[in-house]
Amino acid sequence: MGAMSVLYPVAATAEAALSQPAGRAARESEAVALASGQVEFVSEAVGPAFSSQAAALEVFRSKVETGPEDRYCALREVVDGRAPRPAKPVYKNGHRWPEPKAPPATLWRLSITYWRIVDAARFDHMAQARQARRTLGAERLDAQTLRALARQPLKPVRPQQPLDVGLFEMAPPEAPDRLIADE
Fold it and tell me: Can you name the residues that pair with 112 across neighbouring β-strands?
């Protein structure tokens, strides 16, 4: 008997994946069938943040400690606020680096991994990043727009061309889909 696969929720948001998923799937093809459209595999933090792992575990124990098919939630430690700036070298008293400051405060959050249903309409109105950065107002784009541009899937400029076989390559008759060096 083989190992059991994790069945990840299929939903439009992380909150919906926790409460009302459209179904659960181990593979992308199963998730596409459940969603009746495209999906993407994502991990997102959801729910409140806790100051200790024990406090987070007390609230989310039923989501974290489950059977082998249900291991799509985990507690993760995240930095509270901004990450500290990189230290600059000081070169004093035979030391290159300054004494380290206190580590940043961390919080514990529930992270859920799921198949997110892709809403194709969210990408239709946006230009591709390679086109948007060449426009005159590109330097005035806000952070939210830049993040949305970076997260959208790439669209091909033109259809993919057939494979170009070089001078010293050939396709053998027994495997025409492979190329081998002919030197």
Answer: 44, 73
Q: Is 120 helix (H, G, I), strand (E, B) or coil?
A: coil
Dist CA 35 CA 115 (whole Å): 9
SS3 122: helix
What's the whole-number average pLDDT of the chain?
Answer: 84
Residue that the structure tokens 């961390």 belong to: 106
Give 129-149 pLDDT, tens digit per residue.
667 767 767 777 788 887 877
- Kindly list the distances between the CA atom of residue 23 and the CA atoms of 17, 26, 71, in Å, as whole numbers in the listed order: 9, 11, 15
Give the position of tokens 């033109």: 158
The boundaries of the domain holding residue 145 are: 121-154
Query: Does 12 lie in the same domain as 27?
Result: yes
- Do 61 and 104 share a domain, yes or no? yes
Please, what's the largest Cα pairwise distance for the chain?
Answer: 72
Whether residue 78 sits in one domain with residue 131: no
Residue 94 Cα distances to 88, 91, 97, angstroms:
15, 6, 9
Q: Which of 61, 86, 88 is nearest to 73 (CA)?
A: 61
